[in-house]
Design goal:
Blueprint (H helix, E strand, L loop, with lengths): L2 E13 L5 E9 L2 E7 L1 H4 L3 E6 L9 H8 L8 E6 L11 E2 L9 E7 L4 E3 L1 H5 L37 E3 L3 E13 L4 E5 L9 E6 L1
Antiparallel strand pairs: 1-2, 1-12, 2-11, 3-4, 3-6, 4-5, 7-10, 7-12, 8-9, 10-11
Length: about 210
C-alpha cells in the first residue's frame, strides 16, 4: 500500500538511543479494510479504497451499507482512496495495518487543521499592530487600507482580511517514523501533525 488511514491519538515525547528527548505524535495506523478496488479498464484509473473505523449503523445510509457489505463490514467512519501497486493482488476485505511502515521511514501526513472560528487579520494572517499613539484611536488591531478609492473602486479578490481561521486540509511532508508499536498499531512520528486528538489522518508513503 502507498498509504493508510489513521487517527491522531496525542502528542508526547520519547528518549532516543542517545538519551535525547524527541517530540512525537502518536497515530493509530489502521487497521484498514479494502472496500473497493478500482481498475483502469472500468474506472479509468487504478486505486484502492480503504475503510477505517466504525460508527453507528443508524448514521449509515442504505447505499453505503450495501457498498461496504461487499467487503464484509457493516460501517466505516472514513473512506479514502490510495494509489495501488500494480504487481500486488488486492482482495475485498483485505486488511492493512501499521506493518506496512518501517522505523526510520519518511512519510507525508495529511489532515484537517483545527477550526479556530472567526479571527482578525493579526491572528489569521500575522499582520503587525498599528501605532498605539500619535493620533491613532482604538484601531491598533485594524487591518488598515484594503484598496483605493476612485480606481478600481473595489476590493481585489484574495485580499487578506478577517474571517474564519483553520479547518483547512494541511499536508506536512517528510516526517520520520521514530518507533512502531505493532501490537497496538501505533506509530511514533517525529514532530507535530495538524488536527485535534481523535481526528482522522492520512499517512502517505513516499
Amino acid at each position: 500500500m502507498y498509504g493508510l488511514i489513521g487517527k491522531k491519538v496525542k502528542m508526547t515525547q520519547i528518549f532516543n538511543d542517545d538519551g535525547h528527548v524527541v517530540p512525537v505524535t502518536l497515530v493509530e495506523a489502521g487497521p484498514c479494510t479494502v472496500s473497493q478496488i478500482k481498475v483502469e479498464k472500468h474506472n479509468g484509473y487504478n486505486a484502492v479504497q480503504l475503510a477505517y473505523g466504525k460508527k453507528s449503523k443508524n448514521n449509515t445510509n442504505k447505499p453505503t451499507k450495501g457498498h461496504l457489505s461487499k467487503s464484509g463490514i457493516d460501517t466505516a467512519k472514513v473512506l479514502a482512496e490510495f494509489k495501488s501497486i500494480n504487481e500486488f493482488d488486492y482482495k475485498l476485505g483485505q486488511k492493512f495495518d501499521s506493518s506496512i511502515f518501517n522505523v526510520g521511514e519518511i512519510i507525508d501526513v495529511k489532515a484537517k487543521s483545527k477550526g479556530k472560528g472567526f479571527a482578525g487579520a493579526i491572528k489569521r494572517h500575522n499582520f503587525a499592530r498599528q501605532d498605539a499613539t500619535h493620533g491613532n484611536k482604538h484601531t491598533e488591531r485594524a487591518p488598515g487600507s484594503i484598496g483605493q478609492a476612485s480606481w478600481p473602486s473595489r476590493v481585489f479578490k484574495g485580499m487578506r482580511m478577517a474571517g474564519r481561521m483553520g479547518s483547512d486540509n494541511v499536508t506536512v511532508k517528510n516526517l520520520k517514523i521514530v518507533s512502531i508499536d505493532k501490537e497496538n498499531n501505533l506509530l511514533f512520528i517525529k514532530g507535530a501533525i495538524p488536527g485535534a486528538n481523535n481526528s482522522p489522518v492520512f499517512l502517505l508513503k513516499k
